[in-house]
Amino acid sequence: MKTTKFIGAGLLTAIASSLCCITPVLALISGTTGVASTFSWLEPYRPYLIVFTITVLGFAWYQKLKPKKDINCNCDSAKKPSFFQSKLLLAMVTVFAFTMTVFPYFSSVFYPKNNAKIVIVDDKQLQNASFSVKGMTCTSCERNISQAIHQLDGIVSVSSSYESERVEVEYDKAKTTPKKIEKAITKTGYTVTKTTQK
Predict the structure, then answer these.
(1) Pick the residue with more confidence: 38 or 130?
(2) pTM higher than 0.70, yes or no?
(3) What is the 3-state secondary structure (H, E, C) of the chain?
(4) How far is CA 89 from the centre of its chain?
């Protein structure tokens, strides 16, 4: 039964380690982008959760693979373990845990490409704005914000960076405004702390 507890703990910590990046993808798929930043508070604990996951699953594998002590008895020791105590389940959980911990590195494949085509009549209408955004923790957050902004009319380009906590937007000022862009970002659940027009 010990191994089953370790499997469960490893599974939970693996999911928790990437929940901040899984939530934006789920929010996009379900159409509820306002909850995208719900678990961003977990991001600072991500390295600890990953180490804990590796430790717990490593110990579960040790428990499963360590040699059994020979005991001379007439008991029925050749019983096949249940699925919940099998190496197969442990292997499946280990693969799933690995997938969850590396999820932030491949999460961008779930986002559609922005093929927005815009016709600008006058270059004088082009404007740039920079937004300081709190709550972005990975590329999923960047893609979620970019996707929301690209839904607006007049967006020429969007560049998001979770590392610098900035979103740079080039837009046609005849078709949209920084307030509309800020509102689109806020609807995804992230917080705009400062807006600068260039």
Answers:
(1) 130
(2) no
(3) CHHHHHHHHHHHHHHHHHHHHHHHHHHHHHCCHHHCCCCHHHHHHHHHHHHHHHHHHHHHHHHHHCCCCCCCCCCCCCCCCCHHHCHHHHHHHHHHHHHHHCHHHHHHHHCCCCCCCCCCCCHHHEEEEEEEEECCCCHHHHHHHHHHHHCCCCEEEEEEECCCCEEEEEEECCCCCHHHHHHHHHHCCCEEEEEEEC
(4) 25
Residue 14: count other Cβ atoms within 10 Å of its Cβ: 26
Cβ pair 185, 148 in contact under 8 A:
yes
Cα separation of 97 and 110, whole Å?
Answer: 19
Q: In what order do the strands lie in the sheet with 191-197?
A: 155-161, 166-172, 126-134, 191-197
Is 60 exceeded by the pLDDT of residue 115? no
CA distances from 6 to 16, 55, 97, 192 (A): 15, 10, 12, 40
For the record, the structure tokens of 131 come out as 């937004």
pLDDT, one tens digit per residue, over 22-80 is: 777 666 666 666 566 667 777 778 888 888 888 888 888 888 888 776 655 555 555 67
Q: Which domains does the chain have, with CATH numbers?
A: 2-68+80-108 (no CATH), 111-197 (3.30.70.100)
> Can you give the length of the chain in residues?
198
